[in-house]
Here is the input.
Amino acid sequence: MALTILQRLFQMLFVMFGISVLAFLIFFATPGADPAARIAGRNASPETVAAVRANFGLDRPLPIQYGLMMKRLFVTRDLTSFVNRGQRVIPQVLDAAPITLCLVVGAAFFWLVGGVVLGLLAAALRDSFIDKASMAIALVGVSIPAFWLGEVLNLVSQSRFHDTWLFAWVPALGYKPFWSDPWMWFKTLLIPWISLATLYIGLYGRVLRANLVEAYQEDFIRTARAKGLSPGRVLIKHALRTSLIPFITLFGLDFGALVGGQALLTEVVFGLNGIGRLTYQSLQTLDLPVILATVIYASFFVVMANALVDVVYVLIDPRVRGS
Amino acid sequence: MTDAAVLAARSQAESSAPPLLEARHLSKRYHFGKRLLPGSGKIVHAVDDVSLAVFPGETLGLVGESGCGKSTLGRCLTRLYEISEGELLFEGREIGHVGARQLKPYRRKVQMIFQDPSGSLNPRRRVADILAQPLRVHGIRPRAEIDDRLRELMDLVGLPPGYLDRYPHEFSGGQRQRIGIARALAMEPQLIVADEPVSALDVSVQAQIVNLFADLRDQLALTYVFIAHDLAVVRQVSTRIAVMYLGSIVELGSTDTVYGRPAHPYTEALLSAIPEPHARQQCERIVLQGDLPSPISPPPGCRFHTRCPFADDRCRTERPLLRPLDDGRSVACHYPRTEVSRTAGT
Amino acid sequence: MIPPVANPDPTDPILRVGGLTVSFATDRDPVTAIRDVSFDVNPGEILSIVGESGSGKTVSLLSILGLTDPRTTTTSGSVIFKGKRILELPDREMRRIRGREIALISQDPMTALTPVYTIGMQIAEQIRAHQSISRRGARKRAVELLGEVGLPNPSEMVDRFPHQLSGGMRQRAVIAMALSCNPALLVADEPTTALDVTVQAQVLDLLRRLRKDFGSSIILITHDMGVVGEMADRVLVMYAGRVVESGTAEQIFDDPWHPYTWGLLASIPPLRGPRPERLASISGTPPTPANLPPGCAFAPRCRFRFEPCSNPPPRYKDDGHTALCFIPPEDRPRLRATVLGGERSAA
Here is the structure.
């Protein structure tokens, strides 16, 4: 089992290397564009461009450029932004990362728990009102963009009904670090979490329901029922555990998409200074070093999340453990 | 070229004609496991040094339990699988390692029939299209004759020609198998390798298909390799039998010889294990202990020695080769049962 | 209110099924999968139900265990287990019978065990569902059971996952689980169909030993006449959801009454003696429950059908042997000889 996990982690490193090469090539080896001019920013003087070229070693062969870049990203961490007059990029990214992490992990928690509860209810009460309602929630959820829902929630909780008992607790937009005030941290993130999780709860509930219904056709469920187990035990211990496997696969994929897409806009909407907002701002100013750093850090995050999902696999399904 | 094993492979063939299909020291290996770390990969010897000859007009039954390599061997004989080692000769010509172009005529002459034909019948096409496609692709018949040929094929497999316009899902299991057979026949093959063609069918339907195989053999002068785990069915259709265990042939001979007096302890155990309808007064059963050993690390010596009630030290170290006995069959055993009982009898 | 039935007596049948009829709701009309199935199982007896796929063998067993889906299935008739009418029992009480008094052995050991738990856990789970016993005690019992069914190295096997065992070993684990609460009745649904013959011989041996050592009654569902011949005391032949013939194993094999049984027996290729040129097959295919012919369901495939066969056939009874057929007793030997004779003249 340990070997399987180790192997998976090794693969993860390999994928990270591939991503860094790919990202680097997109930024620095796109034909017909001078990377130095783009790094220097709009309307940069020729001297700045020349300085950039020397600074990044852009007159040297590609592998060396790549090595230099990685060194500045991960070892010396002194990649600087030219648009923002010499601001260090990496500390910016490292400051923003925990915010994004809190946002997406919290949202994932909500949607996983919500999805499991909804899926179990829908499967246990098949064809009932709850089953049909969960279908409606799923449809509505996948069709509402998270940033729009966020704006609407903002509108309701921050301005329209802020003074009512229902939303009086909602703090102003922005982020409070967990260590300084955990309760405040929770309150500032609750609405962003909900707006992100809504997208997935219904969908995940339906996926789980379908897997559960399928599991009930299996022989081992018949065996479990023939053993005289209670319906609850059959559902939770036998059907749910085996049905979680596709559920978790889907989660690995969506979690990646979340970090890359929905979280970015949600952070902007809720004024959270996470990786997403950083990317958003650097895109507006075309600040290439920051974009490169956020892209690489974000994709590493996705890769790690997927590796984690695979480790969870190994834990819940003995069949994927090596013998 | 004809060594002892190749000669043993011809045992008790009724015809003196040269074999239609012949495998010489054929092996099929699979590699699997973690290939990232060198040396940790595992090798499965699915088929291990098998020599086998199929003569024109005969039905060679290939029997053995799951995992014995009979299906893999069948697929190697039709070149559906690549052969790891050894030769394969069709009408005396080596075809085991030739490329796709040289293989094409052989592909036509040798057809395969599978256990579940529905997997190979496109659900969105009518039976007529399914059967006509090989005729068109291989240009076996001129276009004008195709309709007649389709009707003839349906007649051969005992289906009304009106069924040509139906889709595969409209048929029962037995009828689908008939369509699978018709499609194989469309290529006008000389040899048909049938892999468990009746094991998914109900008993009453199974008998129909077994009869159909016999009728077609007589009408079209076909040669079969009939692979099945059901020893009663194989006995019914086969003229010769090859019994496989862990990738090797352990006994080979005419059906009556092998079933009448099995020489290999495994064949004996296999036959005695079959429950029979009128078995209330059946003779002593040999119940084999344990399970099939893993083909990744087969036991040394005779591969059957771990479960053989008669194994001794020689069996544990020295691997018996397939060798002909006095009564014409071949067996891979140091102490064939027929010889043992004969010495015991005298 | 469940009407009381006569006091149980040790020689009384342990299970009495009377007029069991099961129908499923479909998109169109409800379809009757089994109709008017009646049989008794005596203590220590092996009753075999034979029939081809779709004949209703498995459905009748699932409805006895109360495992059919109540949303889509309606069951009528009576099932009396140890003097108690169990079809009418509330689910909670039925659960106490399931697994403890009546245990199930499924067809395919590859899929019958939950893949994510060790076999020891799955056996202990069943024991703990019915007895108040500690986790450790249940596990100890699981090891004992695995040893009893002949699994080598039971104390190590108990921690194995199903995928780490061979088919034969898994089926032993399933049997060990079924035995865990000493059930009075074992229901085995094609227990050896997925196994190789040498392993099948081991498992059949084990079942016979259980009957001898524990006096368990066994309902053995199979399509293999060979298994029936070797195991059964009494036989029920099912076709298209009905019992077409029933009797002791001797009656069924030596003097079968129903043309379907004749065909079934004749279509098995023999393992010794002369090989027939052709097998005596039954033409056509079994009907599906949705398109049963009126009258005798076997009539369209029966070579002896005559005018009355378009009406529901009567049940002939004699000395515990029954058949659902119009053919009068005096004609049976002559007609059956033509089934066998056709075979011989061709040979």
